[in-house]
Amino acid sequence: MKRPLRLTLAPAAALLPLALLACGTGQAAAADRAGLEARAEAIRTTTDSVYVTSMPGFVPAVMSVSDDGNGGFQEAYADLHGSVVQLRVEYGTVTDANCPQGGINGFGDGTTTCERDGAAWYRTTSDAHEYALNLDGRVLRINSSLKEADRATLRAAVRSAHLADDRELDETLPPLRDHQGPTERGDLPPGDGAPDNRPPEGMG
Fold this sequence. Notes:
Elements: E1 6-9, E2 15-21, H1 33-42, E3 51-52, E4 59-60, E5 73-78, E6 84-91, E7 113-117, E8 120-124, E9 128-134, E10 138-145, H2 151-160, E11 162-163, H3 166-172
Antiparallel strand pairs: 1-2, 3-11, 4-5, 5-6, 6-10, 7-8, 8-9, 9-10
């Protein structure tokens, strides 16, 4: 089965030179639920916080996957021109009262306008916009700067967003590392993260 292309995004949200990389372990059909949950836990989230979507011209940015800092989930989608749309799932609820509060992903001066669009809210600042949709105790947010994606793109993305199934979890969640902790070194305090470059016994 042909796997979707996924764009590599650097942690600072700067695109690497148009490199398309496949994601997932390559064992989607045999993905075991306990393993998927362990992979979600490794990035400090849970499988029921992982949502995915689709947008014409945009693909998931592999290295952007993480929790939202509060046990939620976030992932960037990017196009080949460097435009980025952010998907974020966080705990909470959007209401008419709190919708205008705060900016959008660090964009704007804190002045946010809100309007209802079906079940979702459309939020805008001076230079960014966002769709916010209440889930079961969570809020799905899909946003970008005004220059990187238009309203129709964000609307389509929020409408197609859904909880990831096992195959999508396998494609989205980073694989577990064989070694989770730092490599220790003998002449520094334990856990400093430096490689062990001491010579073998009997040498030096």
